[in-house]
């Protein structure tokens, strides 16, 4: 069964990243594809306001795309310790398994049993007719033989004697058998009666031979169990040994994995142990199996990227996934794929503008909540069309969506942006990581976040704390520079707080009245007004 395709935006997602993922997943689903929206990080305040407003749940969180045990795990097939070896063999044959997990009645993993364990048992059968040490009952014998109970009771009794084969004269056999033994015999009534007189416990009548009334009466008088089987005596001798319980041959020391373990770590253990199948357990309970052959070339997650196309901005482990589409409005960031893919890339102010257009182009109806999410994303990414990234296409798309949803763009937009600028409950870390994007600019690796506010002075009062934390992030992630754009929605300007030697790229971006901060008049867009100037500086 194939897995669904994730539609996912960039790390530290903004409203456009989330809403474009939801909107594009809706489009693909309407076209009959198995697609679900996902997110690569925490929902910010503005996005939460939008999702709550339209009654939409947040997309599923995908922290990374590194393949894990759960990604290659198959269904649970197990055996109980009290099952017979014959039952074990039948299950293995039916499911084409070389090994199986053993679980107790509570589903707890207690061991593994393999074809090798069965082979070892076969070659160790020097005393194959002695079942007294196995601790089995006659229910197990009956199941292993696949026979029919002719008479007798007390099948829960433990087998205590030997298995004898009637391959001699009656007198010889009568002298050989002991009370408590099991006798394999065909249609020799004289032998059957003689051995019943010796207080054997069980008669196994082979080849479906007839059991006379006289023999049945004698057996009932002495509570002797009679089992009739279709197999010949030789086959029965082999089958009866398979009544031994699984726990006698299983390996209690189990190499098991958790569903969340990385395949890269699991492979080393598998190479060292060289089993065919491995159990997957959670809190001691068996939940599945993995096959070593599946680990050679594991199936990769299929991913559609929206609102970004740079590896450094993508969800962790993107190199382990198969990118099949990109829908974006940013600069091309050098992301490579192994095969040709579909790309929709336009110089507009929001990815959601593109997603809305694709709905209309394919005549796919948008429910109110989808239209509302796309409208909100356009308003957010263009900062109510104040950003220089805003295009006439964005405005026209927003107006068409607003008409469908029945909202006033200015009124709804200000309420939404106000909700996004309410940072009083945000920690210093949350402010810095808010919409933080990583860029490779020339030889410099930089990260720039952005937060839009009504009054920038509220955040700037924490400037020293912000710089301290930004420096911690820079050292930890080995960035050349970390920046935070505090964008004033009302006055259309930005205060850029920065730290690190990579700040040399900012000398043409704005002017500074104090260390660690630049005032950028008229700057609203990181994509169009900051990053391009840094790229130009790197070229010089």
From TrEMBL:
Residues 72-128 form the CBS domain. Its EC number is 3.6.1.1. Keywords: CBS domain, Hydrolase, Manganese, Metal-binding. The keyword Metal-binding applies. It comes from Lucifera butyrica. This is inorganic diphosphatase. It is an enzyme of class 3 (hydrolase). One of its GO terms (cellular component) is cytoplasm. The lineage of its organism: Bacteria, Bacillati, Bacillota, Negativicutes, Veillonellales. It catalyses: diphosphate + H2O = 2 phosphate + H(+). Its cofactor is Mn(2+). One of its GO terms (molecular function) is metal ion binding. NCBIfam families: PRK14869.1-4 (NF011442), PRK14869.1-5 (NF011443). InterPro entries: CBS_dom, CBS_dom_sf, DDH_dom, DHH_sf, DHHA2, DHHA2_dom_sf, DRTGG, Ser_kin/Pase_Hpr-like_N_sf. The keyword Manganese applies. Signal peptide: none annotated.
